[in-house]
Specification:
Chains A, B: Belongs to the glycosyl hydrolase 65 family. 2 copies of one chain form a homodimer. With about 775 residues, chain A is α+β, with helices and mostly antiparallel strands. The longest helix of chain A has 24 residues, at about 495-520. The radius of gyration of chain A is 27 Å and the shape is globular.
């Protein structure tokens, strides 16, 4: 496997310009703050391989659906996160010659993503065509303190000549999405202004009328001192900038500091954008670059206090887990309940930046344990707010009642248009119900049920009740024509996971209704009235719960992937020619569908979610049957398997699977990091450590731990928030140490023994 | 139901300009000769609703595939029959004012498709804006005697004024396909020339380099006498024409006769096209319009002698069956084994003019019985020639051996890109094998097996042998992940029809190998060697035949559509709200898939093909189960059901189903005739009469008949060719009359009684 980056516990380091794989590095070195994100494109011109990407959270475009053959029920559009105004750009000329490192000799190239303090640094020396040599340094960040602010410091030092360095900082809104279905550009110009030392550009999406106003201001420094310049202004369609020149002697550093504010009509009225952006920009400018950067470093240090995982004895694992946590924290901050987490976050266009069930299945647990509960709560409320759209979606497919949440969405409407996914991968509805259970179970916030939860649970339950049908042949309720999490089979009947999560949703909805009825009677009456929920519906739900059909293999005592699964030729992944892996790159779709190979956890996903309901032997039998048939060709697969393997004391297997998820992007394991990082699966990596190696779960309102340490590690530690208590769990070869970092006592169950840890105290449990 | 056209036994008549539904009439009134085809677009300008369509058989374009989500194995392009040079066009101006009947008052409009003699006639009077009135008549045809020739006679008579009539005959190659995936035009110009009285245009496809050279020459007549004109020439990109003016007194008819030859690089070298086309044009011009038309009438009368069906007592049925036969004969003549039959023939762009299994399943029987055997043979050889491509196609999907014929093709390569069809609707391979059986069985031409048949049969059998897998659970061979003829379910397992036709193919291949071995030993050895066919393969085939799994319902004693079909909610079509029909226009795809409704004959298709292997009770039980669940939303469905109903003595049902197929296009039953006529299903209509009401089949090399007459009809008669004998079968309420119109005696089995009919004699059997 190619080694792309240097190992370091706190930094991602690239020590050579790799022009062939530059797009991979651009993804990895992305920076973001939950409000905006930026791929690691170069500030100066670059004619080599690059995927330009500047993204503003929540700004999307309804790009007309592209389809070979239309099916009734398909959505009209696919929502795409928009590649928006390039605000980092700074053209550089050296005595009139443009700097473009694709076209000159580059030495001492280094790119560093400083995860501890949240910035991106780059340096190199370039021999340009004229023979002149310059040293360049660039540092930039998007602020997590002042979310609209980004800043770049870019310096050039002539090494073997004296001459003129020209900087042309700009804002370029003439941007396109590489994934545009019809090669259209999505932005049009609203207004612009370029003056000496500053510029403003407002653009607007051609549909939906999102406005983005970007403002820039900059200083030029020579040998660290402010330099008076008189710039020329640049203006063209959707583009503003300046051209400023500085004469520099040999070894004299000249630098530009560019401050940018990006404000949008999601937060301000369009006519107020320029003024609002100007105020924010002035405030940041007044603070100055160094102060902004120091705020940034402090704020990141605070984040790490809550969410860091420390691994000793394995720097590769240490770097990987921090990279995952860093990217997750860059992508979603939970402050805005209109936002969610796209599978690639702000690191690429792929998957349209939209919301998938990844959020509920993988991200909610991460935010539950590493942040205030309101963060996960906001992720839940996002779906609550989209309930009406989910009901419309069910109507569109012909259901009289209930809600079917979309597979892929930006505003609650379905965007995806493969029938086998759009119409059939309905298990997503189950994950959305499960996230409510998970949230309430973890936080103890049962009030959520009456406030928001029941509306969603009841409508999802209604969908299931209509989606099942009674088989006169089986004398059971069946669910026909679905795609499970294993997308390597489509239109199957009685996918065990789907049937199980459907019945479980009905059970939990009845339980939740019971809780609210018993504890908030008047709220209960309100809800029943509002939802027009009839007793007969609940009677039907109970009948479905009791008479749901679950495919099983009696002989092996396992739950069956789907009806007819055992008719497939049973081969194991280990018996495949490794050259044929991943099968999705080597096999026809036809062959994949007919094979027994499973893309990602499916039966096992159900056993993971519902592990409190199944004994270990059941989980073991299913794990031992399915894991060898699973190709893990979704980034969401290994983590679930790793956690279950840990639970089953298969420590080597747990570690092996953990490795597949931890450095997925850093090692470009799936050969697709150039499109962006697998943000949502990073939460799965975190889960592998905390739920897998840490064995963390909540049972009967108590935090429980069953830690073990992978053989290669000396120790590892993680922090979790649990019901307003922050604890740190440190596991070494022979001890488990738990620090209670808060002002409240907490009772924790460790390997089935309860321990009380007093406020600000710790305990050590000796394990050898 | 809207009545579009007048009833008449030999003509299709439209007696009013229906501007809203003009595209429907354009389809219905299409003319063609197997070499080229032309929708009934108007010669003069028309700004109303129109779908321009001029097609040259075998000239297609590999239009880049359009897809929402790519799957491994998809084809790079979709082949489209090309809309090509508009050669019928004649602009008309009246005292400088353009004639456009969308923009003036039209009276006495009449359009007639004369099926007996093969031409299209149109007349109307128009009040143009200036208040001038003209009478217009236009007659045109594409010659079935001189295939490259088309001719138009177009006359204008001023009714209330004297003035100048301007004709501008043209050839317009600046044409686009409405169904172009990326809005491209597919033709570029090669050369052109316009002179007084004539013009030439050569265009070339932008891919694959098909050349089309069109030449025109014309006369102008005044009161029937040749008129000397001096025309202006017109030239622009991909366009040539003339402008000629005639002064006409009140009630003086002026006319233009336009002769066109269209020649292509399929028949001539590109550099020889202009000369070849010129020769052909000159020859036709020398004959003159009246002679050409009279040749055309005679040739069509000959065709009718072989293929007419006469129905007395039901003019609607009479007109319909003739329309179907006429369109089939216009579409395919069997002279060119590189050609095949597109589902819409030359009447529209839809389905790309490509080849489907429709040809083998529906068209082969028609041509077998109504034309020389070489016609059907050429349809078979078409597939033989594409065998290498079918092998490549199987390799592409990962099969080590065998051939999978494409679902949709122009040159043997797959064009279609829906995985559930492209990869899964593999039963098409069975129909291609079946057509060989059908051809040999009907014609007795067993030499075909050794010559071409075995190659195809062996490679298809190899495909089946690899496509099945042995289910350790069922202890049977299964076929997983298929779509049957019923496209309203996808990716099912053990579709009875597919399993049965697969096993049948193996049986027939073994039988055919045996025949060739026993009768042409040296040829057999050659084939075995060439195909590298090993004994073990045949052993495996026999094992599959013996151990194939067939889903059944024991209780109902029926073959089961597919595994799990009985888990579906069982509803009958008659219980659906008629407003929800057709379900494909009213239901989401999801709902359709989950329902028990069947799009077209599936189990019953198998029982139709293999009726010699099943007793009537078996067919009856299956018919009575499936027919009520079949929505017949493919035009290919009712005919098969009608034939089986006839066989089962369900005469009313047979007639009811016949009505759905017979006037499908004339009554625009499926609401899509505007896209073109359902050419391939027209062969199914013919089958309904001959195989259904006539009860025709071949048993033990003998023609057998079991006729009955629908209650509404007084009599019907049809002709069939059987092994060089032409017989005419006439059925009335109380007699069956069989004329032997050839010089050989023939033995026929009628209602299980054998009769010998001597050459040129007839017999009458009294049935009441």
């Amino acid at each position: 496997m190619k080694k792309y980056f240097e190992l370091d516990p706190w930094n991602i380091i690239q020590d050579k310009l790799d022009s062939e794989d530059n797009r991979i590095a651009e993804s990895i070195f992305s920076i973001g703050n939950g409000y905006m994100g930026q791929r690691a494109n170069f500030e100066e011109d670059y004619s080599g391989e690059t995927l330009q990407g500047s993204y503003m959270a929540g700004i999307y475009y309804p790009d007309k659906t592209r389809v070979g053959w239309w099916k009734n029920g398909y959505p009209e559009y696919f929502a795409k996160v928009l590649n928006s105004t390039n605000w980092i750009g700074i053209g550089v000329k050296i005595d009139g010659e443009a700097l473009d490192i694709a076209k000159c000799k580059v030495k001492d190239f280094k790119r560093v993503l400083n995860m501890k303090h949240g910035y991106l640094y780059r340096t190199f020396t370039a021999d340009i065509e004229s023979g002149k040599k310059v040293k360049v340094e660039a540092k930039r960040f998007v602020s997590i303190v002042n979310k609209e602010i980004g800043a770049v410091k870019y310096s050039v030092t002539p090494l073997n000549f004296s001459g003129t360095i020209e900087f042309s900082p700009f804002l370029d809104g003439d941007i396109k999405n590489t994934d545009s279905n019809y090669d259209e550009k999505f932005w049009s110009e609203v207004s612009k202004k370029a003056e000496n030392g500053r510029a403003m550009l407002t653009v607007k999406t051609k549909k939906l009328d999102f406005y983005l106003c970007s403002l820039m201001k900059y200083d030029i420094l020579k040998q660290g001192k402010e330099y008076e310049y008189k710039a020329k202004t640049l203006e063209r369609e959707k583009f503003v900038g300046n051209i400023a020149q500085v004469s520099a002697g040999e070894n004299e550093e000249v630098a530009i500091i560019k401050y940018v504010s990006n404000v949008t009509s999601r937060d301000f009225k369009p006519e107020e954008l320029a003024e609002a952006g100007e105020k924010i920009l002035q405030k940041a400018y007044a603070k100055g670059y160094d102060e902004l950067l120091s705020e940034q470093a402090k704020a990141w240090e605070e984040k790490w206090k809550e969410s860091d995982i420390i691994i000793e004895g394995d720097v590769s694992a240490q770097q990987a887990i921090r990279f995952n946590i860093f990217q997750l924290n860059q992508t979603y901050t939970g402050e805005d309940d209109r936002l969610n987490i796209g599978p690639k976050g702000f690191t690429g266009e792929k998957y349209g930046g939209s919301t998938y069930w990844d959020t509920e299945a993988y991200c909610v647990p991460f935010y539950l344990a590493t942040a205030d509960k309101k963060i996960a709560r906001n992720l839940l409320i996002y779906r609550y707010k989209q309930l009406e759209k989910a009901k419309e979606n069910a109507r569109k497919l012909g259901f009289k009642k209930g809600a079917l949440y979309p597979m892929v969405t930006m505003n609650g409407e379905e965007c995806h248009n493969e029938w086998e996914i759009t119409f059939e991968e309905i298990h997503r509805n189950g994950a959305i119900a499960y996230a409510i259970y998970n949230y309430v179970n973890y936080t103890g916030d049962k009030a959520y049920l009456g406030e928001y939860g029941l509306d969603v649970l009841v409508e999802i339950s209604r969908f299931w009740a209509e989606r099942v049908n009674y088989s006169e042949q089986k004398h059971k309720y069946v669910i026909l024509g679905v795609t499970g999490p294993n997308e390597y089979e489509n239109n199957v009947s009685n996918n065990w996971y789907t049937n199980r999560i459907a019945a479980w949703t009905l059970e939990y909805t009845i339980e939740a209704l019971g809780y609210v009825k018993d504890n908030e009677a008047s709220r209960y009456d309100e809800i029943i009235k509002k939802l027009n929920l009839e007793e007969t519906e609940m009677v039907k739900w109970k009948d479905i719960i009791e008479n749901m059909y679950y495919p099983v293999n009696e002989e092996l005592k396992i739950f069956l992937q789907q009806d007819g699964y055992m008719d497939k030729e049973q081969i194991l992944v280990k018996d495949l020619d490794p050259k044929e892996l991943p099968i999705n790159q080597h096999w026809s779709w036809d062959r994949i569908l007919r094979s027994c190979f499973i893309k990602q956890a499916d039966v096992l996903q159900g056993l993971y979610f519902l592990q409190h309901l199944y004994d270990k032997d059941t989980i073991r039998r299913n794990f031992e049957f399915y894991e060898p048939r699973t190709v893990h060709e979704s980034s969401l697969s290994p983590c679930i398997h790793s956690i279950l393997a840990a639970k089953l004391n298969k420590e080597d297997k747990a570690y092996e699977l953990y490795l597949r998820t931890a450095r997925l992007d850093l090692d470009n394991y799936n050969n697709d990091t150039e499109d962006g990082c697998h943000i949502t699966s990073m939460a799965g990596t975190w889960m592998s450590v905390v739920e897998g190696f840490g064995g963390l779960k909540v049972k009967n309102d108590m935090l429980t731990l069953e830690p073990f340490i992978p053989g290669k590690w000396d120790s590892f530690s993680f922090k979790v928030m649990f019901r307003d208590t922050l604890i740190k769990v440190s596991v070494s070869k022979d001890t488990i140490k738990i620090n209670n970092e808060s002002e409240k006592d907490i009772k924790v169950l460790v390997r089935n023994t309860p321990y009380v840890i007093n406020a600000l105290k710790s305990i050590i449990i000796y394990t050898e």
